[in-house]
Amino acid sequence: MSREVLEKKIKVLHVVGAMNAAGLETLIMNIYRNIDRSKIQFDFVVQTTEKCFYDDEIIEMGGRIISHPKPKKGLRRYKDALEKTIKEYGPYDAIHSHVLFFSGVVLPVAKKQNIPIRIAHSHNTSDSKTDSILRKIYRQFMRKEILKNSTHLIGCSKEAGEYVFGNSPVKLGAAKHFPNAIDLTKYKNLSKDKSYLIKELEISTDATIIGHIGRFTRQKNHVFIIEIFSAFLKEDPNAHLVLVGDGDERDNIVKLVHEKRLGNNVHFLGLRKDIEYILSSIDVFLFPSLYEGLGIVLVEAQAAGVPCVISKQIPVEADLDIGLVKSLNLSDGTQSWISAIKESMIIDTPKWDNLELALIDCGYDINASSQRLLNIYCGDE
Predict the structure, then answer these.
(1) Topology, domain 185-361
(2) Which of 3.30.70.2470, 3.40.50.2000, 3.40.50.970, 3.30.565.10 is the CATH number of 3-181+365-377?
(3) Which stretches make up the Glycosyltransferase subfamily 4-like N-terminal domain (predicted)?
(4) What are the extents of the domains in the chain?
(5) Are 15 and 99 in contact (CB under 8 A)?
(6) Beta pairing partners, 119
(7) Angle, helices 133-149/103-112, rounded to nearest 10 degrees
(8) Tens of pLDDT along 196-214?
């Protein structure tokens, strides 16, 4: 690609932690795959030197990955690195910051470097930190910096927007709801077919398959998932649990599974690119998160026609309201969760036309979201 052609494109700098397979990263990649790349180029600032799940695909699509020092090594070092990146790889038409409250560091640098479109994007309803006095001061200060230096505030749910940007009428009026959209074409002709996982796992054709997809972090509540499944297995000895993902807590969960002697029935599938086919193979999707900005995988599960049993901590926007979701309190006992799983297993799969209409009405069509984001980058929204 010639420099002349490149300069005609809208150049956007995404600021993330690392481009691994998780909710916000999946959204960015869904956008990148479907946005008009003849009009736009994405670059990525990351806080790691390790190769990540989406790196190869980003490079194949013409994006660049620029490593910065972790903020804990010093804010001055991070700010200097960001300024250098903007000067060397820019000029940028937009900066899109996905790093929660830390956007309060990113956006002032972007404003100083005259980037016209400066987006703060909230993807979660918690930063997983304790509510210490210092943490509260940090959040308050960063919120002020975000509001002062951003041109656009967007959140994947109402709760996610309020968490980072505040809940006063002025702030709520400024923040826009931007759902975590998915590629509907992947699910249009997808049929329920348990044989996909049955063959891979070499389990019986009449097995009950419960699935969970998510990073192995405290947020996703894997310990509770194992607790629920262990009790469910006593009632259905032919049940199997598939866990898709990776993360710091994986080794602890593997150890817990072996301690409970569940190794023959719990399957760790790692990071996968065939999520829609895995979803088409399971009977129930289990999602008892402690908190979520939205939970894009819950949207994907419903798109695949899978009944879902979730915690009430999940924002209501993630429920397509088509009868596939049952929500419970985390304080409810395991028997309540087991009952919900059993009730969900007899739910009829909705027709695709109804699913598609609900997904579009709720704002989960990636084509519409990509165009909307392009309009923001161009300054038209």
Answers:
(1) Rossmann fold (3.40.50)
(2) 3.40.50.2000
(3) 23-185
(4) 3-181+365-377, 185-361
(5) yes
(6) 96, 152
(7) 30
(8) 999 999 999 999 999 999 9
